[in-house]
Amino acid sequence: MIQVCPIQKGIVVGEDLSRKEGEAQRAVLRRCESESMRNLRMFDAMPNGPEAKRLLHELPPEERKRLNEVMKRINATLQAQMSNGAGLPADQLVRFFLAEYNDRLRRFGAQSMPTSFNIAEPFFVFPRGIPAFLLRDEQDVSFSFTDFLDFVTSSNAPAQDMRQGYTLKEGVIYNFNSSDEIGSLLLATESGCAYGFSAAGMVRVGDELSIMMECGEQLTPELAAEIEVHVDWPDEVMMAGASNHSIDVSESKRKAVKIGSSGLFRVILFIRFNLKDEQIDGWISYRDMGDMFDVVTNLRETMFKLPQEDEDILVKHAESYIDDRPVLVELAKTLTLLPAYLDAKVGSITLKNVRTQLGTCQSSLKVKRTLAKAQSNSRVMFRKITSIEIKRPALISTMSGRAYVAPRYQIPITGYWRKFADDLRVGHDESGNEVQGRTWVRAHIRHKDKPAAQDQPKIVYVKESLAKAKALLAKYQSGLIGSPSTPAPTASASHVATSVVSPTAEVESSGENGAYIYVMRCPAHGTDIYKVGFTTRDPEERAAELSRNTSTPAVFLVVQAWAVTTGLAAESAAHQALAALRIAGNREFFLAKYQRLREIIEGAIAPWLIL
Prior knowledge:
This protein is α+β, with helices and mostly antiparallel strands. Helices cover 31% and strands 22% of the residues. The protein has 21 helices and 22 strands.
């Protein structure tokens, strides 16, 4: 049986539950012009209160009957839309929030919309005569994210022009889904966490391009430990409104959700680009905490009725959050090149027909009767998926070690809107004109030190996930898998001599019970300079340790790692094979294009490689 608006998370805790107030909100409600629809406004003011129920009971019988018919049509249409998607991650993500927003609308009224609605609103319409949010028309696309990265980083890549977004048909949701494993390739900058891409929904309305993106986050060791041990909601990330629904979040237990066996944490980013002004209008990050979301945003408008000092704390929290995760925004900016990718791959496109959940259960008589009341355009039994089939098995390995600069969108720093606790209080806009309920605050009041840093383009690095290597080593050390079928040679004295340990490096054991051979890079060292070594610990921890060295101008990034049976012997073989590329005899740094470096390493460590 089709489920009507399933709500998986319920109330999103840790954010305000109020949407933009004022005339824009009332204009939405005024679209309901019939007497029945006007009566529904009482549910916005007191959605579950006794007064609303009393008014409903006092309606004339014919009006009450008409209202009931309207609600049946609404339920049927929403039921159809929840089940008429292609079943891919992007359309499932959009439908999750379709259910969330409609549940808020019914239970708490239009003013209860969560922070995400400020950016996700263009994905939905509020049709005349139907007091519910419905999805816009959709187009589904399946593509290889690895091939897309190859396209945008190649020597003949198109100009990275944000105006590519204008080629998307206005008012249509584009559901982009990666056919690759989410952790097969990760994107990172020289600081902060790395991300793998899963899916994204895009919709353009006028000059605004809104994106709802799902990805997997590989945390730094420090941030991972913080998430694992932190179980209480910190005061600085609480926003006004959570207490409006009597939810006690002070003792809520939090556990970040990982995506399958990838080892990556699920994060959803909402971001809106202004294609004309070449700016980011705002962003909101949702971390999946199981039965709730952890929310961080730079949208000051959503900080409803907060004391000034609490607002300042939230702003600082948002700034530090995105400073720790700059590649999250860079990844979203990169996705604006997807229209150009589709144009370039037009010859590789195939159309696939897939049956929707609605089409699968259409034989049920009960379902047929229910759906007969739904809007005809929501009764979609089949979806056409635009699929780009690329068969290049070695592409993931060749992509590792690449770097690129995403299209440049600037986060505006000229100022921001601040809401008043008193809706009738008069403030001023950016030009000095009077406005009610809010006022414009110039950026220089609290952003004196921010502008220069935001102007600098960030280099994005492509690397492989460590999840596979970690899983293989764990199985080897637990005895679940044995040694390689090819006997590993014994390291000779000359081999061992080539393995140089710097005075500041950690002193490793020989790693006879398994270890990692890693490749790292430091962005300050140059494009084709890499460090090759071994560690018995998590390579990310080793990179963090090297990065803390005061003589290092920038942080080290792990580009790739392999699980091996014996660390020192495998490292010695790799160093000997790379001898001609070594920069200095007493250092573990090598100069070469990464593809060549990787091929030499994999050939040298083959006898020790755990597969």
